[in-house]
Amino acid sequence: MNSIQVKQEFNAPIDQVFDLLSKHATYNVAFAPIQVVRVKDAADPERPDGLGSVRRMGFGPIKPIQEQITLVDVNKRIEYKLIKNPLIKHHLGMIEFTELAPNKTQVDYTIELQARAPFVSKLILAQLKLAITLGFKKLAKSIK
């Protein structure tokens, strides 16, 4: 299984960082110009972007990528999977949160990916790693 991992420190308490990264709209800032919209709410009205929610990503009216939140462990971990994508066999995203100090949080973002076509997985993962690294650096600077 091919995978990538991105680590980023945030100068903010773990609950603030978790709250930021658990909202689909945050990824509009992190991954601009890619647009992210929630198309299905979670069952929990307090966390509409939580467990079971679905987001679509893309540009303008074309948002072919769909992800569903499969696990939410508050202030510890978020997991999601890609759904309804015929080109990808397996895609699992895991975002883990670790408190380093009262106002310092480390985020470890891991993505496992297996495309149906050979050699495509590494190309996609390389692009994702670059986008996530840049996006998380931008977010970390924004919450000082």
Automatic annotation (TrEMBL):
Highest taxon listed in the record's lineage: Bacteria
Entry-linked InterPro entries: Polyketide_cyclase/dehydratase, START-like_dom_sf
SUPFAM superfamilies according to UniProt: Bet v1-like
Name assigned to this protein: SRPBCC family protein
Species assigned in the record: Acinetobacter defluvii
